[in-house]
Amino acid sequence: MNLFDLFLYSKNILEINGICSAEKEALFIISEILNISKHEIFIQKDRKISFLKVLKILNAVKKRSKKIPLAYILGYQYFYLDKFLVDKRTFIPRFDTEHIIYTITDMKEKFSRILDVCCGSGILALTLAKIFPESEVFGIDIYIKLAIKNKKKLKIKNAHFIKTDFLKENLNFTDKFDLIVSNPPYLSDEDFSLLQEESKKYEPFLAFYGGEDGLEFYRRIAEFSIDFLAFNGYIVLEVDHKWKKVMEIFSSFSYNENKMKVIKDYNGLERVLIIKKDFL
278: helix, coil or strand? Predict the structure, then answer.
């Protein structure tokens, strides 16, 4: 089978099975598996593809037709400047979360100790460890095996991962952090009911669910930060439409609303909340 025929066939299968962005996803699957650019699919359209490669591509297309997320099919997802391993025990990194990284780099601050709460596959902790090579970065979550694999894959030395249940276990660090970051589970019961079916079916429920009102982890982060965030330290959080309620939570823990700032993403939605601790 030649390259362009393989593309048309893959796109057709995806369309028949109700994949809305069939053309885009067919291009992505083929370019990733063949390790070529999407443009080459059109430039080299008469190129013959080996039977084994065709089989691999069509197997991926078949899985995607069943609404299995592409990241789980390929085993990785791009985030910021790197490619991260993913599996079904972790949340698939979203590009929206990159706004946490943009926000932190725009702050022009230096951080000696950084903590990533609910680190998942390690995307925030490891990206920040690369940006701040002199910092000591920690990531905590109930499942850290994938984060450790990504640390080894990216050859990062200044990141450390601790397995813990942030909501239930009492943590004790000897030194305070200058920066606490998190993209915590923040969907409420109502939010979860509106989630895409493929995410509901294939991604771990605990990676999305933040309690009945979606604010459980924010409360715990606020409480935790009282003891473990340094004076003049920062908290940078991913948020959604409930961002004002998150601000109210931190206000209830003596944080000054004048020291909070919400950042919008490229779609004009409130996406990142910065909070500065101005008290001991």
Answer: coil
